[in-house]
From TrEMBL:
GO terms for molecular function: DNA binding; ferric iron binding; oxidoreductase activity, acting on metal ions. This is Starvation-inducible DNA-binding protein. Keywords: DNA-binding. InterPro entries: DPS_DNA-bd, DPS_DNA-bd_CS, Ferritin-like, Ferritin-like_SF, Ferritin_DPS_dom. Residues 17-154 form the Ferritin/DPS domain. Belongs to the Dps family. It comes from Marinicella litoralis.
Length: 155
């Protein structure tokens, strides 16, 4: 069935491509943050364990919102590790770094997502899609706040 919501097919394709990357980045960050929650050690254990839990819970909700926006635009959302590995720019964690490196890795990941969201927000395709613009603005706000927290913890 065709979609006639005021966003042409070409613009929808650009938006869905960008949202698919955002979804892959967000899911990869979710997995990394959850991993760090389980495996953090050291004198900051209690505070980082709680912070990482708060963040991965918020990321889990964000994954759903992003995927559902892709569906509302008429496309299927990617949903496999293989698809995410092809789409994400966030490095998968294969080790258990110390707490400081966990924070550095999370900071880098949040900044990658901010840049991707900003890139999509600045495309001309997004001009006709206020809903996705709002979603991207909300995602950037979340990730900018978390990047600030990581920077503050790192000193």
């Amino acid at each position: 069935m065709s979609i006639n919501t005021g966003i042409n097919t070409e613009n929808r394709a650009v938006i869905v491509d960008g949202l698919s990357r955002l979804l892959a980045d967000t899911y990869t960050l979710y997995l990394k943050t959850h991993n760090y929650h389980w495996n953090v050690t050291g004198p900051m254990f209690t505070s980082l364990h709680a912070l990482f839990e708060e963040q991965y819970n918020a990321l889990a909700l964000a994954v759903d919102v992003i995927a559902e926006r892709i569906r509302a635009l008429g496309e299927f959302a990617p949903g496999s590790y293989q698809a995410y590995a092809k789409l994400t720019a966030i490095k998968e964690e294969t080790d258990v770094p110390n707490a400081e490196n966990m924070l550095k890795n999370l900071l880098d990941s949040h900044e990658i997502i901010i840049r991707h969201a900003r890139e999509l927000l600045q495309t001309t395709s997004i001009e006709t899609d206020e809903v996705t613009s709002d979603l991207l603005t909300q995602r950037m706000e979340f990730h900018e706040k978390n990047a600030w927290m990581m920077r503050s913890l790192l000193g």
